[in-house]
Amino acid sequence: MSILRIICSPRGRASESYRLSQRIVERIAGAAPAIVDVDANTLPHVDPDYAAALSARQDPGGPALERGALRRSAEQIRLLREASHIVIATPMHNFTVPSSLKAWIDHVVRVRHTFSITPEGKVGSLPGRPVYVAIASGGDFSSSDPRRQQDFLTPYLRYVLGTIGLTDVTFFSVQGSVRSPVELEAARGRAEAAIAAHPFEARAIAA
User: Which residues take part in binding FMN (predicted)?
Assistant: First the structure.
């Protein structure tokens, strides 16, 4: 068993999303698992060589593949292929994914490597395995309150991960994290109860 965790908050291991992701990791593995942490904040944005590779009819050869964003892309795709479980720890920024997570997505959603273009549309090539997303948001986005904020994060992640073959995606969230300490503890309790009730073992066997 190996877990790939993508850390997206600029606060890193001090963040609410990381804290929530730890609860998920503990439930997946029970004992000490092999965990590979990737700090998405350190990933560069894609560069000219990467853009040229995506627009070409086939991948370029030579030194371009060994430098810059193409090299980092290959590394991140390899880590995805090697992992049995994926955990994404992310805040919600301006109703959607933070720029760090978008940079990681741009590295791993790569034509001819994680998906192919067919007459029927894009087809993912990554083997299916569970993905768990730990979200921290300052406001509520899933309540029935008409004042709730919009959520463009969860539908986008479900769609873009599905594009590369990762269709088994589960979301857990601590919402209203900027409210009072009492409300934050209540939100944490709800998220941890959802994690405790989730059948991680059954999904691990199915994967």
Answer: 9, 15-17
- pTM equals 0.90
pLDDT (0 to 100) of residue 29: 75
Type and span of the H or E element at 90: strand 85-91
Stretch (H or E) spanning 206: helix 200-206
101 lies in a domain? yes
pLDDT in tens, 66-105: 667 889 999 999 999 999 999 999 999 999 999 999 999 9
Residue with tokens 């430098």: 67
**Is there a domain that residue 7 lies in?**
no
Binding residues are 9, 15-17
Q: Assess if residue 39 is contained within a domain.
A: no
Provide φ and ψ at 94, rounded to 5°. Answer: 50, 45
Q: Point out the annotated binding site for FMN.
A: 9, 15-17
The reported pLDDT for the residue numbered 204 is 54
CA distance 58 to 77: 18
What CATH number is attached to the domain comprising 166?
3.40.50.360
113-130 residues labelled b (16+ CB within 10 A) or e (exposed): bbbeeeeeeeebebeebb
In contact, 66 and 74? CB cutoff 8 Å: no
Q: Note the pLDDT tens digit of each residue in 11-40.
A: 999 999 999 999 999 999 765 568 999 999
Number of domains in the chain: 1
